[in-house]
Design brief:
The protein is 75% helix and 0% strand. The protein is an all-alpha fold. 56% of the residues are buried.
Length: 445
Amino acid sequence: MTASFDSAKAAGAPPFAGAAPKGRLVRAFAARGIHYGWAVVACTFAAMLATAAAMGAPGVMLAPLQAEFGWSNADVSAAMALRLVLFGLMAPFAAAFMNRFGIRRVVAFAIGLIVSGIVGSLFMTQLWHLVLLWGVVIGIGTGMTALVLGATVAARWFSARRGLVVGLLTASNATGQLVFLPMLAGLTEAIGWRAALTFVVAVLLAALLLVAFVMRDRPSDVGLPPYGEAAVLPHVAVPSSMGALLMSPLIVLKEAAGSNTFWVLFLTFFVCGFSTNGLIQTHWITLCGDFGVAPVAAAGTLAVIGLFDLVGTVGSGWLSDRFDNRRLLFVYYTLRGLSLLYLPFSDFSFYSIGLFAVFYGLDWVATVPPTVRLAAERFGREKAGMVFGWIFTGHQLGAASAAMAAGASRTELASYMPAIYAAGTLCLLAGLLALSAAKTEPVPA
């Protein structure tokens, strides 16, 4: 076959000589001038979309669990906050596991873990069951398929169009958490929360089949260079012992912690998680209920946020390939802060929350592509996954803080507004902090 693809030419990369694609499916794509990296992206998109349904499910479970078991908002929020913490803490170790065992095996194991946690929760009767299954089991499983998966796929398979790929995969994860909510809310209201979770299990099993047949670990495994490059890259040695494997993220953290860029991205991503997953995603339906908005209608608003997030995040990926990523982060955090500070002054009518959904949705996780690109440029291709994993840990620590703080505010003060004001103010500060990141730094040896 020919030595180059049209896609590589379009990316401005030189043709790669001597490539010999391996596998019937890979050769079928090559015969049509399509780099197999795009098939891996599509598979990753579907897997992250499915696991995002599990991440978004607690948003419709909060009120039913309180009604059925008598648990308080703070009790349920604490269990969900543990899930968010583990979701973040698993990210750097998930990147290490992907380096050692391969993306396909790790993603398949993670989906199986999530399915087992959800199935077990169908039979729970005690609060500790909720903490164990949704806090620990599902927290670990979803953490292994979080945004670090998209960052790892983008760094391994793409040199050109990397920002666009990160935007697509980030949109998959974030949008999936929101667009499934109206369906889950409808099932919960009509049949019960167990029926909604059964639907999530079916979606996850379908994604598992796709991963088994389509996912590949590295371009070199199928005889291809990364998209936009000419040469097949050799494998980089990874620790063979489990002890060394578990230590590798800590070693990378120690190296990254000496960089100004790392701490700017870590702290701004803490604010990102505080102002999205932990606050709005977890508490939005209950917040709207305080103003007389029905659960299905509130979930529909989250779906609108998710749809506009798809546009905003993909657009952010395109912009991050072309403009100063520090300035993009300044714009994104500032706009998000203004949208949150607007919310307490709205009357939660159809038009006011619709306006909020559009404006806030465009910026839901538009911060991810610039953050991933800055991390990859600063720390290099092989370390990018683990470094971004630690940055993402900051995101989920922020999300957990917001989930607990907002739940406590609702329980003790009968209002979410103090948490809304705090999130908006932190976003404005994060925008200013993003500008302080060094414009360029050498990649460490």
